[in-house]
Amino acid sequence: MSSSQINPPPRLLMGPGPINADPRVLRAMSAQLVGQYDPAMTGYMNEVMELYRGVFKTSNEATFLVDGTSRAGIEAALISLIEPGAKVLVPIFGRFGHLLKEIAVRAGAEVAVREKTWGQVFTPEEIEQAIIEERPALLALVQGDTSTTMNQPLEDIGEICQRHGVLFYTDVTASLAGNEFSADEWKIDAVTAGLQKCLGGPSGSAPISLSDRAVDAIRSRRHVEAGIADGTAGRGTRIASNYFDLAMIMDYWAPQRLNHHTEATSMLYGARECARLLLDEGLDAAVARHELHGRAMLAGVQGLGLEVFGDITHKMNNVVAVDIPAGVDGDAVRSAMLADYGIEIGTSFGPLHGKVWRIGTMGYNARKDAVMITLAALEQVLRAGGAEVRPGGGTGAAAEIYQDHAGSQAQQPGEVPA
Ligand SMILES: *Cc1c(COP(=O)(O)O)cnc(C)c1O
């Protein structure tokens, strides 16, 4: 049997991720391989470390990639930071909080949780109270949870953690580059991400950054077998995973370049291009772009007469959860969007399954044309299914947001004409 060349159908991916990769990222990924220790390759590795320091807003030396999807970064961070038997606190406000809890349990932690009703976030006071009650060694908290679209404010949490001697890990996969994030200013000890949300790449690489405190905790778990004779090895329990042993992965990325895995070269090219494009645009500009197109999509679905789920004052810029109207078959609408218009929108999990659609405006797809086309298609699909929507209400409301924005841009004070 012969199979034909791969030729995926043209799609506009407007769900909660993955989204369409930026063509420049795909082109970077098609570049030829070089050897693992070729100076060109080690040079690219050093560039990637520096680029992601910019993306995470950190001066952390230990900033690199874990090979694998975002979950590989989460797992590497947790399995390397958590000593078996250690107490870990996981405040949960959506599906990915449950994932952190599950991985922490597998890492042998004694896990304490706090839970919020889906659609809400924690206050710093609630988190501090839980820290006082539980005395954890590590706090593991998601920033943007795509399952509920909520964006947990993190800016005060690191300070609280430091005061109580707690290490602070956060998963920013869904939020990074589309919402504010600042690793050093917010005193974050460990942060992991992925490429397939606001960074505009495919999944398969997990950028990570570790503070000196986190590096010390991890290095103390190195074992003499690793050949390290600097006296720091072997204080803690050996990290249970080889592939996700961040002490070994750091030794591979750091100057000594001790062999560990074979770096996923094509993914590294892609991750490098994602960061390069983002820093070229400017982090603030990228966040502002996600804010604008997210606001247009929000106004658009509301303009159609649809209701939006959750506390929208804490909504991520890059995704909105839309209540499926009574009497409308949510899965049939998603199927029609895909079959008739080539547009993918998302469903949800757990308590929200069958209750909301999730519509993303992120990365390469945080664009006006993508927003307008999605709203126009959604209107037609809903009308074809007999739902009551305001004709032109979605695209009209979004267009107004864009017009106001263009107006305010035109009047920017202090602009010098070219
Ligand atoms: C999308 C998402 C992930 C994705 O993990 P993968 O392993 O890349 O599928 C992880 N964490 C959060 C918060 C996400 O929104």
UniProtKB/TrEMBL annotation:
Its EC number is 2.6.1.-. Residues 394-418 are annotated as: Disordered. Keywords: Aminotransferase, Pyridoxal phosphate, Transferase. Residues 41-347 form the Aminotransferase class V domain. It comes from the Bacteria. This is (S)-ureidoglycine-glyoxylate aminotransferase. InterPro entries: Aminotrans_V_dom, PyrdxlP-dep_Trfase, PyrdxlP-dep_Trfase_major, PyrdxlP-dep_Trfase_small, SP_NH2Trfase/AEP_transaminase. GO terms for molecular function: transaminase activity. It holds the Pfam family Aminotran_5. PANTHER family: ALANINE--GLYOXYLATE AMINOTRANSFERASE, AMINOTRANSFERASE CLASS V. The keyword Transferase applies. Belongs to the class-V pyridoxal-phosphate-dependent aminotransferase family. The keyword RNA-binding does not apply. Its cofactor is pyridoxal 5'-phosphate. It comes from Nesterenkonia lutea.
